[in-house]
Amino acid sequence: MPVAYVVGIEWQSQLLEELIQRLDESIPGQFFLASARVGGTPRIGVMSGSWDRVSTALSGTDLLSTTRTQLSALNGWGHFSPVSDQSPDALSFVVFAPACNRPGEAHFVHGPETGIILESWAELDGELAPTSGRGAPRINAGTIRRITSERTRGLDAPMPLALQQPDVSDVTFPIDAVYTWVDGNDVAWRAERDEYLKQENPEAFTESSADQSRFADHEELRYSLRSIEQYAPWIRHIYLVTAGQRPSWLADEHPNLTVVDHREIFPSDLDALPTYNSHAIESVIHRIPGLAEHYLYLNDDVLFASPTSPETFFAGNGIARFAQSRAQIADGAPVADEPASDSSGKNARELVLEVCGRRMNRKLFHTPLALQRAVAEELWDTYPEQAVATARARFRTITDYQFSGNLHLHYAYARGKAMIGRIPYRYVDVGATTAEVELQRLYDARHGIRVYCLNEASSGLTPEQIEGTMRPFLERMHPNVSSFERR
Q1: Burial of 460 from C-beta contacts in 10 A (0-12 / 13-18 / 19+)
Q2: Structural domain of residue 128, as residue ranges?
Q3: 277-292 confidence digits (pLDDT tens)
Q4: How far apart are CA 95 and CA 65, in angstroms?
Q5: Which of 44, 67, 290, 417 might form a disulfide with 412, Cβ 3.0–4.6 angstroms?
Q6: Are 288 and 265 in contact (CB under 8 A)?
Q7: Are 92 and 235 in a shared domain?
């Protein structure tokens, strides 16, 4: 089994190129590329009259196959066979090139999730459709032409005219990603924070507002960046917002990543820096120079678990999608030392109620949040007093608003600029005594989820125990070194 040192999208594209070459040699003119969008599973249609020759064309390779049903199942990784074993009676199957991270290991870095769907297509009265009768529109058989374009990932491949244009639901606009990050182990930074803490009124703080656990760094960002490169390669550019800090492992330069200092985005007349309040930082991230209109906001403890498409977060018309948690925002007014998600949720609820006359009750999942610059700017214009107060709060307080969280998305929803969506997701409290068990469950279920969050919400484990549990898990989950890291 080969050893892979390339990211998933590159691995998949290499496989797609190999399949096109092999099919060109064995069944020329009898196949076409039905889909090859980045973030999705490419599909190759084969004319039904040549379908029984596909297995022979791909024999003698290290490629494995699985059925599409097994691919979508949580335990689908356990059902593999050589491509040559596939029966012609199976009208579609997934071909993938297995790869491990280290010689001799059975663990796949690249498996079925980087595969290609091969399916039989039949012609009737000049129209082509999947022989199975599902999953694609009928297309004109006479319009298949070889092209080289973004739709084919830059490969020379035959594709029907009807499939050469994007679907109305496809996201074709750029999407950036924004991280906020702090090195909580920085001695100078901690000393400065402690000095400012003495000047604050703790009675206005939310729960754990100044606890060290909120600023602890287990290098989650390193692995989150690996996960983006592996599973969300459609992200155009990444912005890392910091207090003048930089991870020691981060490459000095990268064309797709920019480190942004707080001083670049906080209005100078606010006198808000330094800040130790994530709500304050979130309130101004839309001011990042060059940021796309559509962007994902992530904390460094949020990671991708499997290939994810941009349509998970935005509709083709630009409307954002967000996932609501089953957890409810507590009733009543904000009170000291309650979770920040409750106090900020209560505050946002009042503003949203004014906008649409409806009550906001549910919290959000800890996932990448799909945000829009125009909405963020509208919030500042509409609620300048709340925006300035949040930006000036050095620590989390019960008067904060989440301008890049629950307020942004529920306000956008009330204005018809966002919709409630769904994303397969897991949350693990890495500070809980059950963390090791939960991390194993997460690993076992990784192919059935898209994103996950590792949040230190409890104090059942020591920092050393948390590090000893998290690091091996993250290395196992995301072993491929990304291009963002020093080599």
Answers
A1: middle
A2: 8-163
A3: 999 999 999 999 999 9
A4: 4
A5: 417
A6: yes
A7: no
